[in-house]
Design goal:
The protein has helices at residues 78-92, 110-123, 127-136, 141-164, 175-184, 219-228, 251-258, 279-288, 301-313, 326-332, 343-350, 363-374, 384-397, 409-421, and strands at residues 2-4, 7-9, 44-45, 67-72, 96-101, 169-172, 192-196, 213-216, 234-236, 266-269, 292-296, 317-320, 335-338, 353-357, 377-380. With 429 residues, the protein is α/β, with parallel strands linked by helices. The strands form three sheets. A seven-stranded mixed beta sheet has the order 3-5-4-6-7-8-9, with helices on both faces. α1 links the parallel β4 (67-72) and β5.
Length: 429
């Protein structure tokens, strides 16, 4: 156990999945306790959300139906996946949950321009590292300027959305949404606000006054929140994982469907929905070394075209574009090679070790260190020779474990429900 700013939390277990503990227990789930709470459109989708996960013990008949808005951001898929998890859990609790894209709330070309700027920064070696570590982490002048500029556009759109649809709870899963929500909250009495970040080192743009609850996935992240808000109420929760990862095929079944020999070395190679890094070169080098490579391009069409061309020359490369077959591809593999991100939690649920490519700068380097600390992971450089050497070494050491190295879906449900109870949305709300 550890005491953080008046909130009792448990230390992470060996596999790194943290849990909340201490204080009164509601419906069988652990909770955080203590610590004062801080003072208090475009791109909107709604409708029921379906997602698996064990019940946290709260009977639907004991919960009052409310309205919740999830503020995501369309930089990659990670924010949307977390928004989906929150929306599904809220729906199970009787809420009407809808999701909005904070970048689209910028209006017109501003959202696309924001993504273009971010892509441009990470394409220049060292540039995003400099911005992240010197400005975002510390709340420097550039970070404050970014916050003010984005809020100028997002605040009116968010105000319009909350006025048109009365809302009980807003959860920001993108820093731009967190800043705007803090600014409009005083205009909507009774509105509860939360922030959910899976980053290891939560930077300044995530942390604002008028936030009732911060949801994070590590003890380190909780301390980074309190760097800027010492009295914040923070809940450490497991990273939610989508339902199909809890029910994958066996390795034998998955390999048979893909035509991969049962005894052949096989890796899954992917790097987020953008397909960052030299995946084509890495796939070619590993295939030349005798490894079957399931190579996923995500939404990167140019990368998908190049992987398809490579597969025509090298039969051990099996290419995929954007696919929902990732659980089966993980099941077929002996090792998952990827960048730091939510894919790591999914691989641990399947029961596969990780080889992490150090390709995402800034917060990606923070998160890479978190994944290494959680175990069952190694790190490699991006050049094909280093990648292949590391992959061969990992394949010599690891075998797919027979037991998963992550908590089940009920851990997220219980922790999320217990955290919501701290701001008035429990079984007796």
């Amino acid at each position: 156990m550890a005491q953080i700013g008046g909130v009792t939390v448990s230390e992470p277990s060996e596999d790194g999945d943290p849990a909340m503990a201490g204080g009164p227990v509601s419906s069988g789930g652990p909770v955080v306790s203590g610590g004062p709470v801080l003072s208090g459109g475009a791109g909107v989708t709604s409708g029921p959300v379906t997602m698996g996960g064990s019940d946290d013990g709260v009977p639907p008949s004991r919960t009052r139906r409310g309205s919740a808005l999830l503020l995501s951001g369309s930089l990659g898929m990670g924010h949307d996946v977390m928004a989906e998890a929150c929306a599904a859990s809220l729906t199970r609790r009787g809420f009407t949950a809808r999701t909005a894209d904070s970048l689209r709330m910028l209006g017109g070309r501003n959202g696309a321009r924001g993504e273009k700027v971010f892509r441009g920064m990470i394409a220049v070696p060292g540039l995003y590292d400099a911005v992240h570590f010197s400005q975002m982490r510390t709340g420097g002048r550039l970070a404050r300027m970014i916050e003010r500029t984005s809020s100028r556009y997002v605040v009116p759109a968010l105000r319009e959305e909350l006025t048109a649809t009365p809302t009980d709870l807003v959860i920001s899963i993108f820093a731009t949404g967190a800043a705007a929500t803090s600014r409009v909250k005083p205009e909507f009495p009774g509105l509860a606000t939360a922030v959910f970040s899976t980053d290891c080192c939560v930077h300044r743009l995530w942390v604002h006054e008028n936030t009732d609850l911060f949801l994070v996935t590590s003890q380190t992240a909780a301390r980074y929140v309190r760097r800027f808000a010492p009295n914040a109420l923070v809940a450490v929760v497991p990273t939610p994982v989508r339902e199909p990862f809890y029910d994958p095929p066996t390795q034998e079944e998955a390999r048979a469907a893909l035509g991969i020999p049962a005894d052949a070395p096989c890796v899954l190679l992917m790097s987020g929905s953008w397909g960052l890094g030299p995946l084509v070169e890495g796939a070619a080098a590993m295939a030349a070394a005798g490894i079957y490579v399931l190579a996923v391009a995500g939404r990167n069409r140019q990368l998908a075209t190049r992987l398809t061309a490579l597969a025509e020359r090298q039969h051990k490369v099996i290419p995929f574009g954007f696919t929902d077959r990732v659980p089966a591809l993980m099941a077929a593999s002996d090792l998952v090679i990827t960048s730091s991100g939510d894919t790591c939690s999914e691989a641990r649920v399947i029961g596969r070790d990780l080889l992490l490519i150090d390709v995402v700068p800034g917060h990606g380097r923070d998160n890479l260190q978190k994944e290494l600390e959680r175990g069952h992971a190694e790190v490699t450089n991006t050049d094909p020779v280093s990648l292949t050497r590391s992959a061969l070494a990992c394949l010599d050491r690891v075998k797919p474990p027979s037991e998963r190295v992550a908590l089940g879906p009920q851990a997220w449900e219980q922790a999320f429900g217990a955290a919501l109870a701290q701001i008035g949305f429990g079984a007796h709300w």
